[in-house]
Design goal:
With 489 residues, the chain is an alpha/beta fold. The protein contains 14 helices and 16 strands. The N and C termini lie far apart (109 Å). The structure holds 2-acetamido-2-deoxy-beta-D-glucopyranose (2 copies) and zinc ion (ZN). One 2-acetamido-2-deoxy-beta-D-glucopyranose binds next to loops.
Length: 489
């Protein structure tokens, strides 16, 4: 009787669950409750069968008084084994973590507790109005929001948080350059470090210098100082760490002024640019500082080759570096900023299952019946253009390659792109900026990219916001004041 009661109870619950699920058909998270649904159905079926068999057994035992018992036990052992196998199959297909979370929190409660935790954290956030003694600026080259999302899913699933995603303040940056809707690293790094928008391909100079115009770049009025230069002027030390060449377009605007990012050494310079100094010589001969700006430059390189997994892996590597910086410093005096110079054309396509690999297959296209990957690019190099020309029924057609026949989990796999170019191009979307520490709240909205310079200068009281004067100037002012006072009395 107890068994029957339990079965009825479960079936009622199942019906409720089913109604709930129908209400949320469009919700992509419905998969979660269907896990519980499956388990409960299995349990209910198990209990009903037990009830029926119990009746048969009691009847048989009553009639024969012996013999049945053994068969009955064997039947139950076989049945339980089958049930456990079915249960485990459900577990593994739908990811054990979700099933366990579901059993413990039961659907709505789980989501509510997630949101309540976030609200609690948000209510704890206080503005830190101190002056930043140290500033660490992480620039993930080409690390657009989709790259960050893919890195998050890769690292710990959809609800995971990367180290910098736990920072209390976040904004968006508009990355366009003075002349282009979509920038390159040279002009976007100039915006971040020197506070002005420049022309594509130029660095450390303002927009009066067209790309590759050596003569225009010789005009020192066009030169812009970087945060590193201002920090040195304020008597601070400053340095840079990069996974690229130190003369590459992203770090170069910290110390150099050049009409072309490709003038890294003399050999790369055209004959009509001979009176301009190459970027390497500017670093060695003109820059007073020695070896913190940290760049993860390989994210961009991997994206240019269309290798999303390598780019995502590099993003995770940068996240580890951010974590180290967070662990080594204090919120009291160190402003940590994580951002990017520009995006790439990486997209995350619909509708892969929760918990599946972000580098895997999203599904089959109902249009051409060929699988497609979760990640793809808008514009890409030859390796990203995965269409074959085939003759079908005497007609020439371009046919997409079947990705499930390739190792999409490989670091060298190149995701498909829609538009063929010589290499994967940058994207023009906004990038996120994450901040913690003194004046981190200045990053709170949709900002211009070159605002980052302004906000850092303000937070650290350097450059345009330095408390004014160096010690020598202060001594001169003080002496003048004293002399004036003496003269007055
Ligand atoms: C394709 O063209 C060839 C030669 O013109 C013809 O013999 C054949 O029937 C055509 N096949 C189809 C499927 O139309
Ligand atoms: C699509 O990919 C799945 C594996 O993800 C594979 O089983 C299936 O055969 C593929 N479909 C086609 C049309 O190749
Ligand atoms: Zn690039």
């Amino acid at each position: 009787m107890v068994t029957l009661f339990l079965a009825v109870l479960l079936i009622t619950h199942v019906v409720e669950m089913k109604e709930l699920e129908q209400l949320r058909r469009d919700d992509s998270d419905a998969a979660m409750s269907s896990v519980v649904f499956t388990i409960i159905i299995l349990l209910a079926v198990l209990l009903i069968i037990k009830f029926l068999v119990d009746i048969v057994f009691i009847y048989a035992a009553y009639k024969e008084k012996c013999g049945m018992m053994k068969k009955y036990c064997i039947f139950w052992i076989v049945f339980l084994v089958l049930f456990i196998i079915a249960f485990l199959k459900t577990l593994f297909q739908l990811s054990a973590g979700y099933v366990i979370a579901q059993i413990l929190f039961l659907d709505q409660k789980y989501w509510k507790s997630l949101a309540e935790k976030e609200l609690e954290e948000a209510l704890q956030v206080r503005f830190n109005l101190r002056t930043a003694k140290n500033v660490i600026l992480f620039v993930g080259d080409g690390m657009g929001p989709n790259t960050v999302t893919a890195a998050r899913i890769y690292r710990g699933g959809e609800s995971h948080k990367l180290a910098f995603e736990a920072f209390p303040h976040v904004g968006l940056l508009k990355t366009y350059s003075a002349d282009k809707m979509v920038p390159d690293s040279a002009c976007s790094a100039t915006a971040l470090f020197s506070g002005i928008k420049a022309n594509l391909g130029t660095l450390g100079v303002d927009a009066t210098v067209p790309q590759s115009d050596c003569e225009a770049s010789l005009n020192k009025d066009a030169w812009v100082d970087s945060l590193a230069a201002y920090a040195l002027k304020a008597g601070k030390s400053s340095g840079l760490v990069t996974t690229m060449r130190v003369t590459h377009a992203t770090p170069a605007p910290l110390y150099a002024h050049s009409a072309s990012r490709s003038w890294e050494c003399e050999a790369n310079m055209p004959a009509n640019a001979k009176q301009c100094k190459d970027i390497a010589r500017q670093l060695v001969e003109d820059w007073p500082g020695r070896d913190l700006h940290v760049e993860g430059g390989k994210i961009d390189m991997a994206h240019h080759r269309g290798r999303a997994k390598t780019a995502v892996d590099e993003t995770v590597a940068m996240e580890r570096a951010v974590q180290v910086a967070v662990d080594m410093t204090s919120d009291e005096d160190t402003l940590i900023i994580v951002t990017s110079d520009h995006t790439h054309t990486l997209t995350i396509n619909g509708y892969p299952e929760r918990g599946s690999s972000v580098f895997g297959i999203a599904g089959v296209s109902p249009f051409d019946r060929i699988n497609y990957t979760t990640l793809s690019y808008g514009a890409g190099g030859p390796g990203s253009f995965q269409y074959d020309i085939k003759t079908i029924d005497n007609k020439t057609r371009s046919v997409r390659r079947e990705p499930s026949k390739e190792d999409t989990e490989s670091y060298h796999y190149e995701q498909i792109a829609a538009i063929p170019l010589d290499e994967n191009s940058h994207g023009g979307g906004d990038v996120a900026v994450y901040a913690k520490g003194p004046h981190a709240h200045l990053f709170h909205s949709v900002h211009e990219q070159h605002y980052v310079f302004q906000a850092i200068a303000y937070a650290a009281k350097i450059g345009p916001y330095s408390s004014g004067y160096t010690i020598e100037v202060n001594i001169i002012l003080l002496t003048t004041a004293v002399l004036l006072l003496i003269k007055l009395f």
